[in-house]
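Team,

Forwarding the record for the chain on the shared tracking sheet. I've put the sequence and predicted structure together so nobody has to dig through attachments.
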Amino acid sequence: MVSDPLEDLRWLDAAEGRCPLGGIFSVSFFHGLGPAEVLRRFGAAPSGEPDGGHGPHGRPPTLGTLCERAGDGGGFVGAMRTGEWTAAVELCGWEATLPDVAERLSADCEMVAVTRHDYAEHCFVYAVGGSVVTCFDSHVPGYRQGSAPDGLNAVMRETGLDPGSEEMCLDDPVATSFALAAAITGVVFTRDVLERPLLTGAVRQPLV
């Protein structure tokens, strides 16, 4: 029986009412940076929340509690360590995949970011050392921009994406982008991240 490479990621493509992160969110991965430094790059100190960055009863908040606190307004970012990478989650936000912001966030490091935006465009960005290497609309991965738009072609093929296709990819575009991110980072963004402790802060102008 052939395993489904997207099995652990399809929850990120679930309908807005069934996806815990909602219909608009971004997840970015930073190699070699800790959660506090990632928050600093977003302009948010770990103590930036009114409760000092802690959840109920003094426990660190989780992504699940961040979802509850952010509501429909967003404006928060949460960061958690995942091996050699730190994952940062923006609810109701897409800062990390804006080209100029991605350039600043990725200064002196490697960054992969995915945005789901049900009312605009889903987006994938790979940036290194302050330069966007490859980026594309997750629905149409055949149309890419960046300093080396074909730089991930081999990895894309390994994850089932055809870098030469001009057709729209309508099936699981967000999950597929997260599969590509996992191929680069080694981090599979499974649903259990909702229960992991993380540092949080309010999103402001990036400081890098």
